[in-house]
Amino acid sequence: MKVDGGIGVDSGFDGVMDKSREQEEMGYDGLWVPETKHDPFTILPLMAIATDRVEIGTNIVVGFARNPMTLATSANDIQLLSEGRFILGLGSQIKPHITKRFSMEWSKPAARMREMILAIRAIWRTWETGEKLDFRGDFYTHTLMTHFFDPGPNPFGSPKVALAGVGPLMTEVAGETADVFLCHGFTTEKYLREETIPALERGAAKAGRSMDEITISGPSFIATGNDEKQLEAAKSGVKQQIAFYGSTPAYKPVFDCHGWGELQPELNGLSKQGKWVEMGNLIEDEILDAFCVVAEPERVASELKRRYDDVVDRVSFYAPYKSDAERWRPVFEELKA
Hints:
eight-stranded parallel barrel, 13 strands
């Protein structure tokens, strides 16, 4: 497995370059940046300049807050700046955020995302080959590209495209169109094997692709620590995160897969009341263990490999205790072996 880290950006730009450089030196293969309080495309140039080897990518950037042309241009620029190390990781977000936060259209998210990725690739192909831009779809139409706006071929090729998904329709789109599938953190081994992999296979078959052409970036919930206090704090934090995601109706099928479907509306009701602590308290240890590897650092690699070694190509996790480099380096080496 490749091992990926991440750059948290909620606190702003301070330390982004130092954090990126530090994680590259620790042995990470890739670094992801999310879209939360800051635009990831403002963070990525700092990451690219600070590093030489690691892949950098968005996990995720909200696709439907933008359009194929803006995404194609931003991704092409980061690909140039990073000298071919960029992965454009897309996600759909959910309807309330798209319509109420971004004031953008929402309809048929899986079909729209499929078309968005195909349109991005059509734009890149025009820049690469000089052929006329003539993409016409149900959601996006791109038929104009003049010399003034054409950056020309990228010497490092087009970026890889990653797509995040939970439900079967979006996962099929990833199998059909993406280079990398980003498993949502709200995924269990059971759901990955019984629902996600078959959906990816169906999507790949539609496009005449092999599953060997799709990299799977695996689930990322890990609760660990250098001592018992850190471990308990990590477990509590992950329970809160599971509860937050579990309150989303679109993610109910993951609970259903385990027979916990009745928990989702209960979490949803509490979320509308702002009862975040109470939500976390509903996540029992059995549920935590299904979503999350809970172990001291020395056991993290073996447990991840036990669950996912035959289906996951790269694993992404955030460990705030990684400053103990000597303790974590063997974990990375075991995962990569």
